[in-house]
Design goal:
about 475 residues, single chain, mainly beta, disordered N terminus, 4-stranded antiparallel beta sheet
Length: about 475
């Protein structure tokens, strides 16, 4: 008998190693030199990255001057996700960002890590916040430093970032819109609407930049390019504030409505009617066949699928209805077609609470109402529900990795997505992040996330809100 059989050829070893987990693969690499060389094959680690995160490209490995292997990328990203999942002390840093002399009305990430292509080698993130003190402030949240502050103006009411994360857009109490260069804080343009605003929406179509705003008088105004040139103005809910404003994934549809009037129907508007209006034709616009709109969201995985929460007129119960929106063009006219896909009742037990609604990439809906968090499939199946806060949820952030809830109890709750072999998609509650003392703060009001950090605003009892930034490092 041959006590020393010849070693398996390299290709056979690599094929066998494709069936191993990362822990087993690392263990196998320490057996001998042949196994180590096979286990270090870049193709193996590239395959593991693509299986775990669906999409990766060479850009995630860093610049051309820095050579990072797929193995190192895989291990560092797993290590980072473990820290973000467990939330143990020492796995993150917390910075308190002080400087605003009023209420924070919103915050946005200007520079940060995306879930699709996170930069694990440089986790620097910039967050911009707007306040009733009339200023916009940009923060380096890892170092807790103020990068720039805008000149004081009328109290600010809203802030958003543009799709490319290059520009910050704000509105103040007089209806004045301003855009700011994100890197320097320099004012780029301004436009006076003449009335307070209810919502802001920025989107790009064929590399053309547009901003649609909803006013307190019920109209929707669309501006274009860096000079904020007015393109159109359309009335959608006369004399009521337009505080629901969304754009579909294919950018063909705008949904506009008000949460202030239960018997008014939200409308869908053909985006081309706003960005390239015709003098001879009225805007292509149609009311949805429901009344009221407590919350709405477009499904990110579908071109133009809209989910909205409204009241059932008969019993005043809350209902979630899903529509597909399309256009039918003939030789002489174009018509909007709205097709109901699903409709099901909700049992939130929080009729008088603000309802928050977000959509996940996995074709499910995340709702927050009162102290409860609920996850529904588009078919109406309740996937998960949680009631872990002691006070109402004020804000939620949803991405492909986790859900973060901010509450008036001055805590953030972190939950992560998973897949169960028997039950499919799951959401698992992980840990709380505390925001400080109730003697100083009333609770969290806003929360936003990038891949490796969480930033939230805490309402100060002295009228001066503070940002809390939690940064996880790989």
């Amino acid at each position: 008998m041959d006590l020393h059989p010849p070693p398996l050829i390299r290709d056979c070893l690599i094929h066998i190693f494709t069936f191993l987990t990362e822990e087993d693969l690392i263990t196998a690499s320490s057996v001998c030199q042949d196994w180590n060389e096979a286990a270090e094959t870049p193709w193996l680690w590239t395959k593991m990255c693509l299986q775990r995160w669906s999409f990766c490209n060479l850009a995630v490995l860093g610049s051309e001057h820095v050579n990072h292997s797929w193995k190192r990328y895989f291990l560092q990203r797993c290590h980072l996700e473990m820290k973000m999942t467990t939330g143990r002390s020492g796995g993150y840093t917390c910075k308190s960002l002080r400087g605003h002399a009023g209420r924070v009305v919103g915050l946005v990430y200007l520079q940060g890590n995306s879930a699709q292509s996170p930069d694990l080698w440089n986790s620097r993130a910039t967050v911009c916040s707007a306040s009733t003190d009339g200023t916009v402030r940009a923060w380096d949240i890892q170092n807790g430093e103020l990068l720039w502050c805008s000149p004081v103006q009328s109290p600010l009411t809203a802030i958003i970032g543009d799709e490319r994360r290059e520009v910050v857009i704000t509105a103040d109490s007089t209806g004045l819109i301003k855009t700011w260069q994100g890197e320097s804080g320099q004012e780029r343009a301004s436009f006076a609407t003449g009335s307070p605003l209810g919502s802001l929406l920025q989107y790009n179509i064929n590399n053309n930049w547009f901003l649609t705003v909803g006013t307190s008088q019920g109209s929707v105004c669309t501006l274009a390019d860096s000079a904020l040139t007015k393109k159109s103005s359309v009335m959608v809910c006369d004399s009521f504030k337009v505080n629901t404003l969304l754009v579909s994934r294919d950018k063909k549809w705008i949904t506009a409505g008000t949460k202030d009037k239960d018997d008014l129907s939200p409308k869908v508007i053909y985006t081309e009617s706003l960005t390239s209006p015709s003098e001879d034709e009225d805007p292509l616009c149609q009311s949805l066949p429901v009344t009221g709109c407590q919350a709405a969201v477009f499904i990110p995985t579908q071109p133009a699928r809209l989910a909205l929460i409204h009241h059932n007129g008969l019993h005043n119960n809350q209902v979630l209805t899903v529509f597909d929106v399309s256009i039918k063009k003939t030789k002489y006219k174009s018509e909007i077609q709205v097709q109901q896909v699903e409709s099901f009742p909700l049992t939130l037990n929080s009729r008088h609470s603000k309802v928050l609604l977000e959509a996940a990439d996995s074709n499910c809906l995340v709702l927050a109402a009162g102290q409860g968090l609920y996850v529904y499939s588009l078919k109406g199946a309740l996937i998960a529900n949680f009631k872990e806060h002691t006070m109402s949820i004020s804000s939620i952030s949803v991405d492909s990795f986790r859900v973060v809830t901010a509450s008036q109890d001055l805590s953030l709750r972190v939950l992560t997505w998973g897949k169960d072999r028997d039950h499919g998609l799951t959401l698992e509650s992980q840990y709380h992040l505390l925001g400080g003392s109730h003697t100083m703060s009333r609770g969290f009001t806003h929360v936003a996330c990038d891949y490796s950090s969480i930033t939230a605003s805490a309402e100060g009892k002295d009228g001066k809100d503070v940002l809390k930034a939690y940064s996880f490092t790989s």
